[in-house]
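Researcher: Hi, I'm a grad student and pretty new to this. My advisor asked me to get structures for two proteins we've been looking at. I'm not sure of the right format, so I'll just paste the first sequence and hope you can take it from there.
Model: That works fine. Here's the first sequence with its structure tokens right after it:
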Amino acid sequence: MADSGFTFSRRLHLRLQRDFDRVFAVRCAAGNGHLVVFACYNGLDYSRIGLSVGRRIGNAVRRNRVKRLLREAYRLEQHDLPRGVDCVCVVKKADGASLERYRSALPTLIARAVGKIEVRVDSSDG
């Protein structure tokens, strides 16, 4: 039986274009050459993730595999990520894509992107 604390329900997915647009409009991002994570606060008590894997990554089979790996990495790392944040992951390169790579990259990139949001909020108060 699966641990219910590591589920990945539909409410954790960004699905609407307006949600993606809102995250991109904030323009707080962090990247590592393979993956860029955009983030913004969502006003909810949980975080959500959206994925963008373009055709340059490869055919549909390859793109879907990358998306599965990213969703699984998010599912496993969701308890170590900031709450109340919407994230959009944009894949730039998929060479060497693995669950371990995404599991180590996601928390770091999301934390860096959220840190940029907080810097913007602090500097605009001033």
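Researcher: Oh nice, that was easy. Here's the second one.
Model: And its structure:
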Amino acid sequence: MNCAELAERIADLQPEAEPRDVARLCLLLSNAVDTIDDLDDANSLAQIWQEVGWRLQAATDQHAAMTEELETLARSDPRKFTPDQIWVLIRAIKVQSQVLRLYVGDTAPIVE
């Protein structure tokens, strides 16, 4: 299988997907397996699709929550940050790292 074939299968599975979403899913799915040929089998593709979907949803949820915390933090005076506010910044870095790992193909667990 090549990326074009994978894109066709994704488009069949999710016909309403925009081309950029299909491309994103190709990247996420291909990074989730050792070789892209692991996605040839319909059952394997479905299982990996579901796992990637869960990982992406978890990272998206964490990112949304962290964005809200960072917006609150941005309204405060950085010279008066408390230890809890510093931890908000550290968690934000970790969440960004998790999202990046999805796209670069790191197979380490998302939730730490």
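Researcher: Is there anything I should tell my advisor about the second?
Model: You could mention this: The mean pLDDT is 85.
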